[in-house]
């Protein structure tokens, strides 16, 4: 899952990034309102974490502005302001959830999963695709009830394809989904992850659409044990 974190406190940001990375999230970090606006128009995210006390503008003003410009992603507000008035203001400005500082990183991760899931209209964390089931919150993948061991990048790649079922996903979109901006991406790295997914979930799971990109295909158990 790709997360945009707007937080000017370096210590908190570092903790959130490390904690979420360890749980399989890809986090982009900005420290002010102007960079947030630039980032949301430049890249795709699944969910946003927003600190309210920002150096250049109040977080609520920023959020209201983003919502007016039809920014529709789920937003979790992170703040030390603890009053009913503040909470109501946060929700009215377009926030979807609210977490008070200091907070537990596991709770933050769990809430992000719930927001993302609700946004996608799913009532449980489990994503079903034929005989394949994926739980993004526990990062478990099952094929015909057999647990499949996927690396973090393979999980992100599979999730990006599942999120776009029936649609063609470009190479750049897939790279965006599995790498952060600061990651050093070797030119053939995406191909390696695709190769591994096909090896583990069947050769049809990632279909190449010539000149356009890739598409999710059926998972198949038959090829799992082949060399
Ligand atoms: Ca702050």
Structure description:
The chain is of the alpha/beta class and 227 residues long. The chain folds into two domains: 2-119, Response regulator (Rossmann fold, 3-Layer(aba) Sandwich), CATH 3.40.50; 127-224, Orthogonal Bundle (Arc Repressor Mutant, subunit A). It has helices at 10-22, 33-42, 59-68, 84-92, 105-119, 152-163, 171-178, 189-201; strands spanning 2-6, 26-30, 47-51, 75-79, 97-100, 127-129, 132-135, 140-143, 146-148, 206-209, 213-216. Helix 6 (152-163) packs across helix 8 (189-201). The model has no long low-confidence stretch (mean pLDDT 90). The structure holds calcium ion. Residues 8-9, 51, 53 line the site of calcium ion (CA). Residues 8-9, 51, 53 line the site of calcium ion.
Concise account of the structure shown:
The chain has 227 residues and is α/β, with parallel strands linked by helices. It is built from 8 helices and 11 strands.
Give a quick set of tags describing it:
single chain; 227 residues; alpha/beta; Rossmann fold; Arc Repressor Mutant, subunit A; 2 domains; five-stranded parallel beta sheet; four-stranded antiparallel beta sheet; 8 helices; 11 strands; elongated; binds calcium ion
